[in-house]
Amino acid sequence: MTDIHGILDKQLESIINLCEDIYKHPELGYKEFNTRKKVIDVLEKACIPYRDCAYTGILSEIDSGKEGPHIALICELDAVPTLNHPYANKDDNAAHTCGHYAQIGVMLSLFVALKEANTLDKLCGKVTLVVTPAEEFCDMDYRKNLIKEGKISHPSGKQEMISLGIFDDVDIVLSCHAMGLDMEKYHAEIGAGLNGFIGKRVIFYGKAAHAGSNPAGGVNALNAANLAMSGINFLRETFKEEDAIRVHFVMSEGGQTVNTVPSRTQLEMYVRAKTVDAIFETNEKVERAIKAGAYAIGCDVEIQDTPGYFPLHQDENLTELVKEHILKYMGPEWVAQGTHGFASGDMGDISMMWPTVEIGVAGFTGTMHGVDFKTADYEQAYKVPAHYFADTIIDLLSNGGEKAYSIKERFKPVMSKENYLELLDNLNKSTIYKKETEIL
User: Fold this and answer.
1) Rounded Cα–Cα distance for residues 396 and 34 (Å)
2) What predicted TM-score, i.e. pTM, was given to this entire model?
3) Which domains, from first to last, does the chain contain?
4) pLDDT of 2 over the 90 cut
5) Which residues have C-beta within 8 Å of that of residue 124, sequence separation ≥ 6?
6) Rg (Cα) of the chain, in Å, rounded?
7) Residues 6+ apart with CB under 8 A from 91
8) Which residues is 163 bridged to in the sheet?
């Protein structure tokens, strides 16, 4: 077996250059056409076949030709809107402030090295590079139009791939992501949990009137929105700390003109929590506050729900196996374990049904989703994760895939794929409550 680690080291400079170029040319979800082309160029140069998937996604497979486990390597193409970032896209403020560009570098370099080193010749099973679009939950009007046009069926790239059956025969899922911890204190984060969430758009419908001469003739939709927000804020003392609840919102429309009683206002919000049950319980409380605000002022209200992401629950047995290999590259004092983050990602959806790890990696500076986010340490951001994932794959696919199959057998899915897709469909809804008659 050719030394995969030597090949990874030789690739480092070219992969860094590629991914730092992606950092400087960001694209939002389902718009990653140029980013996608850059990944394809690397695969074609390495003579590795690929196929299109999920609109802008890519699938590429290396097969040992022998029966064995199927490992998926996940990386993400998209950026996130970040106003005033030095490399923000002028059209939609897209910026790579979540580290996806480096994640591409880790998994793409690893995948190509597996091929060039002929690593799977002495192992079993297969490895698929799953290049996913649209992880960041944003630009929703664009995505909803794609759904209307029949180009996609779900707003998230991994939701789309799950529905297309891409993961149906996958046994193990490996991924990494820039971590939100102190990167001077830690170089890896393992076993971390993330919140799940429901996305909500709330539209209050009032009645316009002249704000100076006839305010009594109007129904003020801005007042209804303010009452709803106050109601949600008064509910916060009922949120249990162990549920890690976050409810946050912005007012995307506050009225039409100062001189007119606002006839329509709009809130965008997330309802986040650590468990599926806590998400639904909190969502019910939030909807009570929304309807109460509308009822008090005499507005109609429309609540548009969009399924967000499920909580991330990393597989304990897979985590421990990856940890063994991480510790070859750093001391245990550099590894954080068992933390919980209040953010969300669609790796959570994967983790509901497949044994999954998403290792938090260091090597960045600045604030996640902030104007100063950038790479600070190329070795930690790119090289080290690629090496310990290489060791992990060799371990999982050795001895007939014994360890991979053991992890899969001990894994207990939270839900089936069928139940998952049904739940997504049920969460995707719009409900209008009429004043006085239907709100309460």
Assistant:
1) 34
2) 0.93
3) 4-194+311-397 (3.40.630.10), 196-308+426-433 (3.30.70.360)
4) no
5) 64, 66, 67, 68, 69, 397, 398, 400, 401
6) 23
7) none
8) none
